[in-house]
Write a structure and sequence with these properties.
- Helices cover 54% and strands 0% of the residues.
- By secondary structure, the protein is mainly alpha-helical.
- It has a single domain (28-195), classed as Endonuclease III, domain 1 (Orthogonal Bundle), CATH 1.10.340.
- The chain is globular and about 50 Å long.
- It starts with a helix and ends in a 5-residue tail after the last helix.
- One of its GO terms (molecular function) is metal ion binding.
- Keywords: Metal-binding, Zinc.
Length: 200
């Protein structure tokens, strides 16, 4: 997809220029606050598949992942059985790692439990939004107190592939943290989006 002309020569976070798909993702998704449960679950799942791999690999396969996992509707994914797992392991469009596939199915079941207990995934997850005044400068860390706490609680509830670094990356992308570089043209836009965002 072609970027709008007004954004083509703007200064972005350094990572945004490292792959062809990254500028679009950086400008229109990364860091905008999200409260939709299905989108939050999708990102948790994609972070699971990214473990040990690059985000470029996962982003390039995202459309295939969405088709394979019913657009990450956790009500449907929670019902996956052995036949579904076999089909996923034969799907060349996704990352065919059995442990990660089983983790996503497990996490879908845990997501259903969380919705029943907490009302929504968003209600639970946004409790771990860090105080901006306690965070160091952007792009200087890979975990924070809140990502460690979120990881610990999710593991306690039976979630898998939810380590502190994975949770920090999740929080960055879903807008719980504005980690755009100080000189990135998107930083102010994300600040405004976060200020206008209604927390669940």
């Amino acid at each position: 997809m072609t970027l709008k002309t007004s954004k083509q020569h703007q200064t972005r976070c350094a990572w945004a220029s490292s792959a062809p798909d990254f500028p679009e993702y950086h400008d229109h998704e990364w860091g905008f606050p999200v409260s939709n449960d299905q989108r939050l679950f999708e990102k948790l799942c994609l972070e699971t598949f990214q473990s040990g791999l690059s985000w470029r690999t996962i982003l390039s396969k995202r459309d295939h992942f969405r088709l394979a996992f019913h657009h990450f509707d956790f009500h449907k994914v929670a019902q996956f059985g052995e036949e579904d797992v076999a089909k996923l392991l034969d799907n060349k469009g996704i990352v065919r790692n059995k442990r990660k596939i089983l983790a996503v199915i497990n996490n879908a079941k845990r997501a259903l439990e969380m919705v029943e207990q907490e009302g929504s995934l968003a209600t639970f997850i946004w409790r771990y939004e860090p105080d901006e005044n306690t965070l160091p400068p952007p792009e200087t860390q890979t975990t924070c107190v809140e990502s460690i706490a979120l990881s610990k609680e999710l593991k306690k509830r039976g979630w898998q592939f939810v380590g502190p670094t994975t949770m920090y990356a999740f929080m960055q992308s879903m807008g719980l943290i504005n980690d755009h570089a100080e000189n990135c043209f998107m930083r102010e836009e994300i600040d405004q989006a976060r200020k206008g965002f209604e927390r669940p």
